[in-house]
Structure formats: C-alpha cells, structure tokens
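re: the backbone from monday

yeah here it is again, tokenized this time
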C-alpha cells in the first residue's frame, strides 16, 4: 500500500517537476534575451559611427566592383560567375561584414585581460551563453542598420540582384543565421586564448587573415584555381561567406543546400565545443590581480 501511495504521489509530482523545469528554462531564456537587447541598445548609441561605417562599406564595394569589372573586360573565357553575380556577391559581403569574425574584435579578450571578467563570473549565468547573447544582439543591430541599407543602395546604385524566390530566400536566411552563430563561436574560442597569452592581438590577426581568405570574402571561391578551392572545401571557413552567398546566387540548389547547411552546423558545433573547452580550462587557471 505504501509503495502504491508513493507511486501515486510520484505521478502527482511529475507534472509539477515538468512545470518547474519549464519555468526555469523560460527564465533562463528571458535573461539571455535581455542581454541581447542590451547589446542592441548599446550599439544604437553610435548612429553616426554606423553611418560612417555604412559609407565606408559602400565605398569599398564600389572599388571592388571596379576591380572585377576590369578583370572581366580582360577575360576571353567564360567564368563560373558573371559580373552581375560577382557584384551581388560583393554587396552581400559588405552587408554582412560586421557580423563576421573577420577583423579580430577584442571585447571578450579585453574583459579577460583587464580582469573585469571576475565581475561577470559572480553572476549566475553561463559565460559562453552570455557572449553568444551579446553577439546575437550585435548581429541584429547590424542586420537592421547596416545590411538592409546596403541591400537598398546595392539594388538602386550598383545593380545588385535580389531574388524573390522562397526556395532561395529561406535557405539563405537559415544558412546566414548559422554562419553568424559560427562566427560568434569562432570569436569566443579565439578570445579565450587570452587566458594563456594575455594579449589576443597576434592570434586574432592571424585567425582573421585565415578567415578572410578561406571564407571567400575577398574573392569568390568559384573563381579560385581548382586545387585551392578544393582545400577551402575541407575547411570550415567557407561556411561563413561562400556557402550562404552561393545559396543566395542560386549556385547551390536541391540536396546541395542540405549538404551545405549540414556542413555549417557540424563546424558550428565543433567551434562551440572548442570554445567551451577553452573557457573551462581558462577559468581553472584564472588569477585576477587587485581587489
């Protein structure tokens, strides 16, 4: 009888436990959502700087288009991408530039270097999730304030193509979202090396160079020599730029889209795991001077 009563009480407690877990999950999501919102609001204070960045990005887009126009005028053989597709590729690169780990941002590294990370560690939050939230808020800001204006200017002034096809737009949005998450994971992993080096300038510059080149940001990988493109296909970095942009241009279709997104997801999980391992080992040896 006692066991029966215990079983009955256990069955009653199960919904309560499930409900409690749901509230904990919702509360955790709310906390990280607030972090993302604060990150967005923080960057809203620098509208003039964003306008200057937008003008700079557009200027470099024009310069790169001029360079590729001269290249195509000198070509006598057909290329994998026509000039309009390259123009669109360049505009996409400038639109999403600030969401990619291309220039070695140092916000995370600075908190470790100056010891302010100690304050963050006193909060009941996951450090990696906190920085993902910060990166998410930043990416949403640049999507609204940088990407959308670049799309409009690119379409009106540079002849950028905008496909009105859900079979292209939806996979592109999914692929681009994964690329942004992967970029955040790479940034966190690289910044975590400050626990050992005390200065991330060198490794950030090195990683940025690798990412800029092998992502296809400067030159579409479709225009590379076959042997070099083959090397890039085995690396994770084309998932940041070349894969989502190729989906946008309609160069990757059908099952190729699923394979591309699968590759992005795989490497994203790898970098998330690598970043978590680096932070875990770094925290175990963290010493903050002063008080």
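seq for it, each position gets an aa:
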């Amino acid at each position: 009888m006692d066991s029966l009563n215990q079983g009955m009480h256990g069955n009653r407690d199960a919904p309560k436990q499930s409900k409690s877990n749901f509230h904990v999950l919702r509360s955790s999501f709310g906390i990280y959502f607030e972090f993302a919102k604060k990150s967005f609001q923080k960057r809203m204070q620098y509208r003039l700087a964003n306008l200057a960045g937008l003008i700079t990005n557009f200027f470099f887009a024009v310069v790169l288009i001029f360079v590729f126009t001269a290249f195509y005028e000198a070509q006598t053989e057909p290329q994998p991408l026509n000039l309009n597709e390259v123009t669109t590729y360049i505009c996409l690169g400038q639109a999403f530039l600030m969401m990619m780990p291309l220039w070695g941002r140092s916000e995370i590294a600075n908190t470790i270097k100056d010891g302010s990370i100690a304050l963050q560690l006193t909060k009941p939050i996951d450090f990696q999730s906190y920085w993902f939230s910060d990166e998410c808020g930043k990416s949403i800001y640049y999507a609204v304030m940088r990407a959308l204006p670049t799309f409009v200017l690119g379409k009106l002034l540079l002849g950028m193509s905008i496909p009105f096809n859900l079979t292209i737009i939806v996979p592109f949005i999914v692929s681009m979202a994964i690329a942004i998450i992967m970029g955040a994971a790479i940034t966190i992993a690289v910044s975590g090396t400050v626990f050992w080096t005390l200065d991330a300038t060198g490794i950030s510059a090195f990683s940025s160079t690798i990412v800029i080149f092998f992502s296809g940001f400067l030159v579409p990988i479709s225009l590379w020599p076959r042997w070099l493109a083959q090397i890039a296909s085995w690396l994770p970095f084309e998932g940041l730029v070349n894969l989502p942009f190729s989906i946008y241009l309609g160069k990757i279709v059908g099952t190729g889209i699923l394979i591309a997104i699968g590759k992005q997801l795989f490497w994203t999980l790898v970098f998330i795991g690598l970043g978590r391992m680096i932070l875990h080992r770094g925290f175990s040896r963290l010493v903050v001077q002063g008080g």
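The mean pLDDT is 83. The CA atoms of residues 20 and 26 lie 10 Å apart.
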